[in-house]
Design brief:
A hairpin with a 6-residue loop joins strand 14 and strand 15. The protein is globular, with a radius of gyration of 23 Å. The protein is built from three helices and 15 strands. It has a 15-stranded antiparallel β-sheet that branches. By secondary structure, the protein is of the alpha+beta class.
């Protein structure tokens, strides 16, 4: 009985800790609100749009962590068994602490992005007239050699994971999708639909439609995706889905026509949902996989996201084929191209 009372005492102290954090969050929100009321030139830190975005996302992340914690505690109050209820409180606090830590790591990662790409607002001004009709790619318009958007092109990748063998099939479909960007602008971009199906030991766990458009210079822009996640054949979520023009989401460049070493760029931008980044690190990479190889002529990029600061992938693109290899530099895990079909 004494042990249970001690556990409740710890839970009460946990309440006090989280209330303290809640007060701090409230003060931060008030401070941000006051800063927003001040004229931009008067702000001590200047226009720094990128850094401000990082801090705004940090405050939002902390608020979400706090909300999740109190919902968890509310559920714990409805657990009848005292020991189970105390354990529920303990788990809720542990998850809250982990979430707050992750918020801080994301903030630091976003600020590092700002150092790489600068403080200017991310607001690409695009004109549909500067983009290629998807049906003309490979016809009257050149193909991006690292990212060929030609219908019926297909890549099959295989990788070993802790859960099993993962097979990824990527197919450039004949379908297109019109996306209005910016919202209510009357500007519509005709995007090619690329289907990405992920299987784990033969069972579909993810089915995604990605939307890409090629501009007149040959750069491939990423306008969003609808991603469906499955468990045992049942749809369980669409996390990661986004569309340019919706909730201020904006397109990014998934592949340059003429990559430049050292260039850091946004591949997508939907704050808190999709923030993938890329950096060109070599134009002379070498790699060998079952379906292709390159010897000093591969494009190598480093792909990462501040949403998951610990995740980093090296990707190798062979001219004329596209992506042939993904490598996790920390674990050495590889996702290899095992089959490639060109129309």
């Amino acid at each position: 009985m004494m042990q249970v009372q001690n556990m409740f005492s710890k839970a009460a102290r946990s309440d006090q800790i989280v209330r303290g954090v809640s007060v701090l969050c409230a003060r931060m929100i008030l401070l941000v609100a006051l800063l927003c009321l001040v004229g931009e030139p008067a702000l001590a830190w200047g226009p720094k749009s990128c850094s401000k975005t990082s801090w705004a996302a940090f405050v939002a992340c902390q608020n979400e962590a706090r909300d999740d914690y109190w919902i968890a505690r509310g559920n714990c109050y409805n657990v009848s068994d005292p020991e189970a209820r105390a354990e529920c409180f303990k788990e809720a606090l542990s998850e809250f602490r982990d979430a707050v830590k992750e918020c801080k790591e994301q903030r630091e990662a976003r600020l590092e992005v700002c150092e790489d790409i600068g403080e200017a607002p991310y607001d690409p001004a695009l004109d549909p007239n500067d983009f290629v009709d998807p049906d003309n790619i490979g016809g009257s318009k050149p193909i991006n050699q690292y990212f060929p958007l030609v219908p019926e092109t297909q890549w099959v990748y295989v990788g070993n994971t802790d859960e099993g063998i993962e097979t990824i099939t990527v197919t450039v479909t004949n379908g297109t999708k019109e996306i209005e960007y910016p919202a209510e602008s009357g500007l519509f971009f005709n995007c090619r639909v690329v289907r990405d199906v992920v299987e784990l030991d033969g069972e579909v766990i993810e089915d995604t439609d990605d939307w890409y458009a090629q501009d007149d210079e040959g750069n491939i822009w990423y306008f969003g995706e609808i991603s469906q996640e499955f468990e045992e054949g049942e749809l369980v979520g669409i996390e990661g889905s986004w569309k340019a023009g919706v909730d201020y989401a904006k397109p990014g460049v998934i592949m340059w026509a003429n990559p430049e070493i050292g260039k850091v760029y946004r591949q997508e931008f939907a704050l808190g949902e999709a923030e993938d980044m890329g950096e060109v690190i070599s134009l002379e990479g070498s790699a060998a996989v079952p379906a292709a190889s390159c010897n000093g002529d591969c494009l190598q990029t480093a792909d990462y996201t501040p949403i998951e600061p610990d995740v980093l992938e090296y990707k190798f693109y062979r001219p004329g084929t596209g992506l042939i290899l993904e490598v996790d530099p920390e674990t050495g895990d590889r996702v290899e191209l095992t089959d490639f079909t060109a129309p």
